[in-house]
Design a protein that fits this description.
The complex is a heterodimer.
Chain A: E1 7-12, E2 22-28, E3 31-38, H1 46-50, H2 58-63, H3 70-85, H4 91-122, H5 127-133, H6 135-156, E4 165-166, E5 169-170, H7 176-202, E6 214-219, E7 230-233, H8 244-247, E8 248-251, E9 260-263, E10 269-270, H9 273-280, H10 286-294, H11 307-327, E11 344-352, E12 355-363, E13 369-375, H12 377-394, H13 401-413, H14 419-422, E14 427-432
Helix pairs in contact in A: 3-4, 4-6, 4-11, 4-13, 5-6, 6-7, 7-11, 10-11, 12-13
Chain B: E1 5-10, H1 20-31, E2 36-41, H2 45-52, E3 57-64, E4 74-79, H3 97-106, E5 113-120, H4 132-153
The chains are: A alpha+beta, B alpha/beta.
Chain lengths: ~425, ~160
């Protein structure tokens, strides 16, 4: 209990997050003095692996960074290489990429909403225990995951580390009949499950906690950003993707194998669903906007615990958008463009399920990659997650260590951190002295 | 129509002997196995449940660690049975086969019969390829699976 004045909370290995990491919170008397997300998953050296490889290899190599969001890596890699080579793919190829990406959003968000985060709100240690009392909900989550995977398998060749993506387009374009069958048999029923998901999570009990972080998301005036857009902050600054590294500064900290990121002129910031929604809700599809309104989301959601509602709305959007894309689909002909190398640097950014994912490649005239830079969303969010935890714990010091630790873990899961991607994460430690 | 049997090789072929499951599936693909779906998986729970639901028989092939280890020794586990207490997981997907089975039980998505074939490993370091003893075990497991599937699909199963 809290009869001690000084204490520390330690979570040695965080559960229900992607990857390996820990959290350490130190409380001196009545003040939280230190919060550290300790990402100890070993550095993965992907940027170094890429040096010396051919310019058409990054989509296959970088897909291996993550089993949950490989498409994000493939898409940002393709955009960056094509930018370097001065190639812009045809609109049908771009639209097929967006459809593939919709599949990843549905699969990733469904996994996080149902399997990883919902048990926190309903008081279960995990999804297995939750399934005993909420079987219908878990069935719905599996159906959504399956729908996302179905898109990934049909368009990407397989659900994990898709093999059909190449620089310039796709090795093979699915037929109209295949996509229409997918829409009829899988995506339309899944859209009903997605709408039910929004209604379900909107009724969860949410801790009273708000944040005022600067936000960073891609913005596309025409539609919700997934596969492209221009970086913009919540205070209205926007910049071309090629200037990303001038505005986003990465630094090393001793307690994390993942670099921390800050905006050069604004410090810590947040990327991901809350940022995307705040900057782009106006271009959600009417159905997704209606679901958001019914769930009580305003123009901006500042309670990170309600990010689960935003993710649910984004599942609705991704399925709605996938159905639109299937309806309008004409197989790209050809399914890919030639992308001859030239000596140049190229830049690409897309919206991974967890936020902005930036790639930069410098290539030689023969296509050899001279340097590579990858800035994943979880790395960008680390300083904001630590700041959230500092404030969250400070207001809840009356809780005993077990309760406080559980709530801290839930707070971390608000950000669906992908430690494997960032290390390039989680155990929780709270130290009260 | 969904074949009544699924054989799932779980593991990472780029971590030496952890690629035991996928290596067995590749051998089965070369020899052919009528009546069965052959699948590789990283072990993520939802994906496993989707693969084995509505099947009469699911055979899971997986690498196991033992201490002391006898590389190549094969373990055969019939599921359902009480799930043994598990060591803490550090899976990057936060779920493991035990959790997949537990969740599938709650949702009545367990096949009529489920067999886990595990082989003790020698090396789970970086790189492709099985260590010699584990490669020999892969050939034995292929024969065992083929016999199991044939017996299961036989019109007169004994």
């Amino acid at each position: 209990m809290t009869h001690r004045n000084d204490r520390s909370l330690r979570v040695g290995a965080l559960a229900r997050v992607e990857g390996e990491g820990a959290m350490h919170v130190r409380v001196d008397g009545t003040t939280v003095t230190d919060v550290r997300l300790q990402i100890y998953e070993p550095p993965r050296f992907f940027e170094a692996f890429l040096r010396g490889r051919g310019h058409v290899e990054p989509p296959d190599i970088t897909a291996r960074i993550c089993g949950i969001c490989p498409v994000a890596y493939q898409m940002s890699a393709c955009l960056a290489i094509e930018d370097a080579c001065g190639v812009q793919v045809s609109e049908p190829i771009a639209e097929l990429r967006r459809l593939l990406y919709c599949g990843e959003w549905v699969a990733s968000h469904a996994l996080h909403v149902y399997m990883l985060h919902a048990p926190d709100f309903l008081g279960y240690p995990g999804v297995v225990e939750m399934a005993r009392d909420h079987r219908g909900a878990v069935e719905r989550g599996l159906a959504l995951k399956k729908a996302g995977n179905a898109i990934l398998e049909l368009v990407g060749g397989r659900a994990i580390h898709p093999i059909n993506v190449r620089v310039g387009g796709f090795y093979h374009a699915p037929s109209i009949a295949e996509l229409r069958a997918l829409a009829r048999d899988t995506l339309r029923p899944a859209l009903d499950h997605a709408l039910a998901t929004v209604e379900w999570v909107a009724g969860f009990p949410f801790p009273d906690f708000t944040v005022g972080h600067e936000l960073l998301a891609l913005v596309d005036p025409q539609r919700y950003p997934i596969d492209r857009g221009e970086p913009r902050t919540s205070t209205g600054r926007s910049f071309p993707v090629r200037d990303f590294e001038r505005h986003v500064v990465e630094t090393q900290v001793p307690h994390s194998t993942a670099l921390h990121a800050r905006l050069a002129d604004a410090g810590r910031y947040l990327t991901g669903p809350l940022a995307r929604y705040a900057l782009n809700h106006a271009v959600l599809s009417p159905l997704a906007r209606q679901a958001a309104t019914a769930a009580g989301l305003g123009e901006r959601c500042e309670n990170p615990f309600r990010s689960i509602v935003v993710r649910a709305v984004e599942i609705v959007y991704a399925l709605d958008e996938a159905l639109r894309l299937v309806e309008a689909y004409q197989p790209p002909e050809p399914s890919s463009l030639q992308v001859p190398a030239r000596p140049a640097s190229g830049y690409g950014a897309t919206e991974a399920p967890r936020g902005v994912l930036f790639h930069r490649y410098e290539i030689d005239g023969d296509g050899t990659i001279r340097s590579a830079r990858i800035v994943p969303p979880t790395a960008q969010n680390q300083p904001s997650i630590e700041d959230d935890l500092r404030r969250f714990v400070q207001d809840r010091l009356q809780l005993d260590d077990e309760q406080l630790t559980a709530q801290c873990e839930q707070a971390i899961r608000n950000y669906d951190p992908c430690i494997s991607c960032a290390t390039h994460f989680l155990d929780l430690t709270v130290e009260r002295t | 129509m969904t074949p009544p049997v699924v054989v799932i090789g779980v593991g990472n072929p780029y971590r030496r002997d952890d690629g035991f499951g996928p290596a067995v599936i590749q051998r089965l693909r070369r020899t052919g196995l009528a009546g069965a779906t052959l699948a590789e998986s990283d072990g993520e729970a939802c994906a496993l449940i989707m693969l084995w639901e509505r099947r009469r028989l699911a055979i899971l092939v997986e690498a196991v660690r033992a201490n002391p280890a006898h590389p190549g020794r094969i373990h055969r586990l019939i599921v359902p049975r009480p799930t043994p207490a598990r060591a803490g997981t550090t899976s990057s997907h936060t779920t493991d086969m035990g959790e997949a089975v537990a969740l599938a039980r709650e949702l009545d998505r367990i096949p009529d019969r489920m067999i886990v074939l595990g082989v003790e490993v020698a090396d789970t370091g970086f790189g492709a390829g099985l260590s010699p003893a584990v490669a020999v075990a892969a050939d034995r497991v292929v024969d065992e699976i083929a016999a199991e599937v044939r017996a299961h699909l036989s019109p007169d199963p004994r």
